[in-house]
Every structure is written in structure tokens, then in C-alpha cells.
Design a protein that fits this description.
It is built from six helices and no strands. The protein is mainly α and 148 residues long.
Length: 148
């Protein structure tokens, strides 16, 4: 009898495997929960410091901050962390996650104007649609003309 046959005939082996998977999932969930709580605390602290300033710049402002963090990661990796004292790679990833959440909150507030595929709803006021279009055009132009 081969090992696979024994495994399927012995329910305790299957129970052990299932329990091991449950423990692994629990550890992953605990890790996710830890980072989500840290991120929530950070976003709330920064909101007390800055208020809702990020929303005043619209989606373009959020995307610009995400671009800044992407460039920070590139700089950290390319320069071997030389000369960087105030921000670690972990800090930068946490900031990226935070801006992603702020982007989701912003989109939720603006969902009255946009479809799920990010096309403009037909009853959206033209000033809203044109404002967003200009922001996106400017971001694309900046990205295409960046020296990096």
C-alpha cells in the first residue's frame, strides 16, 4: 500500500492537514489584521494633521502622491538606501496602501458621476467630467515627460 492510500484511509492524517491549513490561514489573517490596523491608525493620525486636504486636489492629487511613492521606491532600491534617513521601504509601502484607500474613498464619494468602468455617467455635469479629464491628461503628460 502506498503512502497516498494510507493518507486517505487514516482520517487523523486528513484532520491534521486540515488543522495545519486552518492555523496557516489564521496566521495570515492575523498579519493582515495587524497591518490594516496600523494603516487605519496612520490614516486617522494624518487626517488630524492635514484634514481632508488630499481630496481638495481630486483624483489627480491622489495619483500624484502614488507616483511620488513609486519614485521613492525606485530611489530607495537604486541608491541602496544611501542618504535616506526618514523613510524606510516599509514606510513607503504603507503610504502607498494608504493612498490606495484614500483613492477608494474618493471614488466612493464621486460614484454618483462615474460608472464602474470609470466612464462618465451620461447625467454627470460637464464641469465635473471636464475637470477630471484635464487632471488625468496632465498626469499622463507629466508621466510621459518625466526625466526618470
Amino acid at each position: 500500500m502506498d503512502t497516498n492510500d494510507m493518507m486517505y484511509r487514516d482520517p487523523s492524517i486528513i484532520d491534521d492537514l486540515l488543522n495545519q491549513k486552518k492555523r496557516e490561514r489564521t496566521k495570515v489573517k492575523e498579519t493582515f489584521d495587524k497591518y490594516c490596523q496600523e494603516l487605519s491608525d496612520q490614516l486617522l493620525r494624518k487626517n488630524l494633521d492635514y484634514g481632508n486636504a488630499i481630496y481638495k486636489t481630486g483624483l489627480g492629487g491622489i495619483l500624484a502622491r502614488i507616483f511620488d511613492k513609486q519614485e521613492r521606491i525606485r530611489s530607495l532600491l537604486n541608491n541602496g538606501f544611501a542618504g535616506v534617513e526618514n523613510e524606510t521601504l516599509a514606510d513607503t509601502f504603507q503610504d502607498l496602501a494608504g493612498y490606495g484607500i484614500l483613492g477608494l474613498i474618493f471614488l466612493e464619494k464621486e460614484e454618483a458621476f462615474f460608472e464602474n468602468d470609470f466612464t462618465v455617467k451620461s447625467d454627470t455635469p460637464k464641469w465635473v467630467a471636464s475637470k477630471w479629464l484635464e487632471e488625468l491628461k496632465e498626469l499622463i503628460w507629466d508621466a510621459e515627460n518625466s526625466d526618470l
